[in-house]
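Researcher: Quick test of sequence recovery. Tokens follow.
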């Protein structure tokens, strides 16, 4: 039976234009949805805009526009933004639509009729930014921690939803459902809040103060509190309570949110559903905050705003999607910036993936008349085939664990394996050898077929670039099923004579301020640069096919030092990795190295190794690895550490 899945982004609040936070959550949701579609699931994907409330009323007033016209304008910018990032939603709901407001009215009446809503006068500290009363416990130095403003003392008559009644049930549900809130740290945060009374939820605002909202069906002098209205979008879009979509998809609902709206989604929303008599959603996936390149919260005044749409224009929307999924560990706070995007783009896409495609294409055009050749697999190819066919399982597991970056890394490891294979087999030499034709065909076919599988597994991240890739190699598309089979690249198919370079190398901007308009950057998204079509006609020489050469300047960018191993230990739950404590001059470094199968940790202390010292730190199994140590590898994959031949002091330069 086909599995159904339902994913949603938050409905974004239209008091401002779409920014990186919105883009990140939406790109991750789209990646997940596309992955589930590839797996053959029957999916539904919802996004939209939240258009009621005091802040929006205020924002419209400030810009001197009538409120409806104001929200129409901003909703349109969101719709357009998602088009630019290739978001493949099935529905875009706006909370000012009657299909939504009717559901809100119906739910309010039902919950009111059953006695779960009551009227009370309340006096407390009210944050306009949050649009709610804050408890004393929530204040930090008398201020709202989210808005850094002193809330106003406010007294008003409001309707309250008996949320406290559901507290114990919710806590039990969270404890009994391990996948309910992920990553698990956020579930623990909510359980801690639920360990003390949460009180009841004020769900109305006096109309005299906030005229922009859905009137309560039994009291026209009040409008619905924006969250009690907005959260219902997740069911109103499906035609709750009787709609077919609701019956089909609601049971599999997984919401993607940022951690700033954790409480509303993890406490308000499930208790509302419970009071409505509806089943609670299946899961809540919580993303962390994205900071500017300087590690500070993005703000115009700091000049560290990273604009996803500017980046998409410069480097293509595929590049932005890939970067966000690959470089931000889902659930954690992360620094992002244009330079880091360029580094990631050049390393993974331009060098590893794009170069391989160009080199394979060039040899096909030159030596097989542009036709995909027959292959006669030897044990070398069999090893690659086995690796290729096991990829989908690993990738699916990692996606299921929300370790999206690791899923992409798994595919890129395989791309790097293909590159090594290509270099080792030296097909440009086979082409010149008298009896090399069969091996040449085999090597090229193996690369092409490997790239076919790669293109499918990367499709959720790079939806348009993988189509270009497949076109340039005459490859069919396919679903996950098509990655479990080897040999679907059609032998004899002819590749096009010309193709744009898939990922032209990008240049890093000089500063990381996204708003610097004249930063010197390449624009791989544009197809205008005539000089970039270098893989179209086969040139006389073969510079792009043989092993790539680098300049001495490139080489000197790598800083290598002699380092002394202070101690080494095995990394738990893996048989490949060792954690090494190194001394580099007077500096201590921790490095994770994949040499566990070749060295006993106890034999390493005191040895001198060569450390790549200016490698960007990377997290491996939860350990931040500050560099890489050099090892030589033989054909069987055995590793031997590179050591200086004389005793040099630790910290000595290697070049
Ligand atoms: Zn606030």
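Model:
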């Amino acid at each position: 039976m086909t599995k159904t899945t339902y994913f949603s982004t938050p409905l974004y609040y239209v008091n401002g234009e779409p920014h990186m936070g919105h883009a990140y959550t939406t790109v991750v949701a789209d990646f997940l949805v596309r992955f589930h579609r590839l797996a053959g699931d029957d999916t539904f994907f919802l996004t939209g805009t939240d258009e009621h409330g005091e802040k929006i009323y205020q924002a419209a007033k400030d810009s001197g526009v009538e409120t409806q016209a104001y929200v129409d304008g901003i909703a349109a910018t969101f719709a357009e933004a998602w088009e630019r990032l290739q978001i493949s939603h099935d529905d875009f709901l706006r909370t000012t639509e009657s299909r939504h407001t009717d559901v809100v009215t119906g739910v309010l009446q039902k919950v009111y009729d059953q006695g779960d809503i009551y009227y009370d006068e309340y006096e407390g500290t009210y944050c306009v930014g949050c649009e709610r009363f804050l408890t004393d416990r929530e204040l930090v130095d008398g201020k709202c921690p989210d808005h850094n403003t002193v809330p106003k003392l406010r007294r008003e008559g409001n309707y309250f939803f008996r949320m406290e009644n559901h507290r114990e049930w919710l806590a039990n549900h969270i404890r009994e459902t391990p996948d309910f809130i992920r990553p698990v740290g956020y579930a623990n945060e909510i359980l801690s809040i639920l360990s003390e009374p949460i009180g009841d939820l004020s769900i109305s605002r006096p109309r005299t103060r906030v005229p922009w909202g859905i009137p309560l069906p039994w009291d026209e002098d009040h409008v619905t509190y924006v969250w009690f209205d907005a959260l219902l979008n997740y069911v109103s879009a499906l035609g709750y309570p009787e709609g077919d979509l609701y019956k089909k998809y609601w049971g599999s609902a997984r919401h993607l949110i940022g951690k700033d709206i954790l409480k509303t989604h993890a406490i308000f929303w499930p208790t509302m559903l419970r009071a409505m008599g509806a089943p609670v959603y299946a899961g809540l996936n919580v993303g962390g905050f994205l900071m500017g390149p300087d590690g500070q919260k993005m703000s115009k005044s700091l000049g560290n705003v990273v604009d996803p749409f500017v980046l998409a224009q410069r480097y293509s929307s595929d590049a932005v999607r890939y970067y966000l999924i690959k470089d931000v560990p889902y659930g954690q706070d992360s620094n992002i910036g244009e330079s880091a995007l360029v580094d990631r783009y050049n390393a993974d896409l331009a060098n590893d993936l794009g170069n391989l495609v160009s080199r394979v294409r060039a040899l096909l055009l030159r030596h097989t008349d542009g036709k995909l050749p027959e292959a006669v697999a030897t044990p070398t190819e069999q090893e690659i085939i086995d690796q290729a066919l096991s990829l989908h399982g690993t990738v699916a597991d990692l996606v299921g664990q929300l370790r999206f970056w690791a899923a992409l890394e798994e595919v890129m490891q395989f791309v790097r394996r293909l590159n090594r294979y290509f270099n080792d087999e030296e097909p440009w030499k086979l082409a010149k050898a008298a009896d090399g034709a069969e091996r040449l065909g085999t090597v090229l076919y193996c690369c092409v077929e490997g790239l076919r599988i790669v293109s499918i597994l990367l499709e959720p991240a790079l939806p348009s670039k993988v189509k270009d890739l497949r076109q340039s190699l005459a490859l069919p598309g396919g679903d996950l099923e098509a990655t479990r089979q080897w040999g679907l690249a059609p032998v004899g198919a002819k590749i096009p004579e010309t193709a744009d370079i898939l990922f032209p190398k990008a240049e890093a901007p000089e500063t990381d301020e996204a708003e610097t308009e004249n930063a010197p950057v390449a624009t791989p998204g544009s197809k205008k640069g005539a000089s970039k079509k270098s893989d179209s006609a086969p040139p006389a020489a073969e510079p792009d096919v043989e092993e790539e050469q680098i300049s001495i300047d490139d080489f000197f960018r790598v800083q290598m030092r002699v380092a002394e191993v202070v101690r080494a230990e095995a990394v738990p739950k893996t048989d490949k990795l060792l954690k090494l404590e190194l001394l580099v001059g007077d500096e201590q470094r921790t490095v994770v190295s994949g040499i566990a199968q070749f060295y006993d940790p106890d034999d390493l202390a005191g040895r001198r190794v060569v450390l790549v010292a200016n490698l960007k730190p990377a997290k491996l199994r939860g350990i931040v690895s500050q560099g890489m140590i050099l090892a030589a590898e033989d054909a069987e994959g055995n590793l031997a550490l590179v050591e200086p031949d004389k005793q040099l002091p630790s910290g000595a330069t290697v070049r």
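Residues 434 and 440 are 11 Å apart (CA to CA).
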